[in-house]
């Protein structure tokens, strides 16, 4: 359990892609603070309703679940309207949902490019555009974009992912400047390797190409880029989100903050 930030009790946090990995861990960290939680991600309505009920029972908070497809701006608007109708506001927005596809640029499938740009970048524009006026009215808001170390540096075979993540860093900077006088902070977290399903396929590929066990391949993937020879736990990103929501972080805005085991220090 993290330190209790009393000011966050009763605030409403919407975390995109919170049915898995970093988003789910972040939802737990914020729920522990007494935040009401909008859960979102690709699972069936029944599974999502069950997940939301678990949160309600465990943390005594209000919850709402949506499986809106972030590739469709109309779905995003509909989902966010419904969330506000159910929970009253959105005070903390965590743009976290993301996908990956690795291939060289010459062979990169156009539909993968379009999906990655839509989910990892454009969806954050739509959600931010939707929440900023109400946050400005309240003179309080926290927007945290889960970018990546790939928002700061490139890697081969990740053309769409790196373009989207560099884009979200730019989006973060502009919105932070526009919102600086409105009590809204806007930051990007740039993690290195985090132990979630998102990177499973990359590990599988190394394991089969090099005839390694899953764990050997995982170690090789991490140490190929990151001096710290271990993956972060999803919850560590959630704790960083929490810090950015707290009073001590009031002056941090417009930042792209690496949490990358010295990857970008090289
Ligand atoms: N895992 C890592 O090593 C790592 C490192 C740096 C940054 N990140 C970023 O962190 C974020 C979360 O990644 P994760 O590793 O937890 O991944 P994950 O695969 O565990 O979770 C991704 C979430 O996004 C949702 N999602 C995917 N496509 C969607 C769509 N079309 N519409 C709606 N929701 C959709 C999924 O349902 C899921 O909830 C991503 O933006 C990712 O780029 C991950």
Structural notes for this entry:
The chain has 266 residues and is of the alpha/beta class. The chain has two domains: 8-192 and 232-259, NAD(P)-binding Rossmann-like Domain (Rossmann fold, 3-Layer(aba) Sandwich); 196-231. The protein is 47% helix and 13% strand. It is built from eight helices and seven strands, in the order βαβαβαβαβαβαααβ. The protein has helices at 21-32, 45-59, 73-87, 110-138, 159-179, 200-210, 214-223, 234-245, and strands spanning 12-15, 36-40, 63-66, 92-95, 141-146, 184-191, 256-259. A seven-stranded parallel β-sheet has the order 3-2-1-4-5-6-7, sandwiched between helices. α2 (45-59) links the parallel β2 and β3 (63-66). It is globular and about 55 Å long. The two termini are 33 Å apart. The relative contact order is 0.14. Bound molecules: nicotinamide-adenine-dinucleotide. Residues 17, 19-23, 41-42, 69-71, 96-99, 119-120, 146, 148, 191, 193-194, 196-199 line the site of nicotinamide-adenine-dinucleotide.
């Amino acid at each position: 359990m993290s330190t209790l930030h009393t000011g966050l009790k009763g605030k409403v946090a919407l975390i995109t892609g919170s049915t898995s990995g970093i988003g789910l861990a972040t939802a737990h960290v914020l729920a522990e603070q007494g935040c009401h939680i909008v859960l979102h991600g690709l699972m069936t309505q029944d599974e999502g309703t069950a997940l939301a009920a678990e949160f309600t029972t465990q943390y005594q908070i209000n919850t709402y679940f949506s499986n809106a497809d972030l590739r469709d701006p109309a779905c995003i608007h509909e989902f966010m309207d419904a969330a506000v109708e159910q929970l009253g506001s959105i005070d903390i927005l965590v743009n976290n949902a993301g996908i990956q596809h690795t291939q060289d640029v010459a062979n990169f499938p156009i539909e993968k490019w379009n999906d990655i740009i839509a989910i990892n970048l454009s969806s954050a524009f739509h959600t931010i555009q939707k929440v900023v006026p109400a946050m400005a009215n309240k003179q309080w808001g926290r927007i945290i974009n889960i970018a990546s170390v790939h928002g700061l540096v490139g890697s081969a075979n990740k053309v769409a992912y790196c373009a989207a993540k560099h884009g979200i860093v730019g989006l973060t900077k502009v919105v932070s400047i526009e919102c600086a006088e409105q009590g809204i902070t806007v930051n990007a977290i740039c993690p290195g390797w985090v132990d979630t399903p998102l990177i499973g396929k990359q590990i599988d590929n190394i394991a089969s190409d090099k005839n390694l066990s899953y764990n050997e391949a995982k170690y090789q993937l991490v140490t190929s880029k990151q001096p710290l020879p271990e993956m972060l736990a999803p919850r560590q990103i959630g704790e960083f989100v929490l810090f950015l929501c707290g009073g001590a972080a009031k002056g941090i805005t417009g930042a792209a903050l690496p949490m990358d085991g010295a990857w970008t220090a090289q």
